[in-house]
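Below is one such protein, fold included:
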Amino acid sequence: MKQYLSAVLINALLIQLVGCYSQKAITYQEFYDMQNTAGATILTNKNKSIKLTTDSLKYNYVKWIASEDTITILSTHYVRDQRTNKVVSDTVKMASSEIDKVFIDEFDGTKTFFAIAIPVAIVIAVGVIVARNFSFSGPLFSGHGL
């Protein structure tokens, strides 16, 4: 029973990891109004891209404080030198007028469903065709004859 449960959980984890995400462009005001945004990408008027992420596993941690007219971005990352490891912190303050667009990643359940369902249907169809066309009897499958 544990094997079946593990097989289902591993597949669910893989589906979540390879799920289809799409980027949605929103205005700064919409971004400011959103709560609990895990990550976003800010595109400035000068075509500079700033990735906002809270993923500390990539040796990069970004915290941001958004207000109506400004955003303050606090970035901490590790710099590995031959002699030492240093923690470097940067602070950037931008006015909302400097921000052209904000892109957020949204999980697209429909695309993920089709990305998983189509290969599964093909595997099942091939399995049915193979099972109908080939007989699983004889010396190789009965254990005799080798």
Observations:
- Helices lie at 2-17, 28-33, 109-133, 139-142.
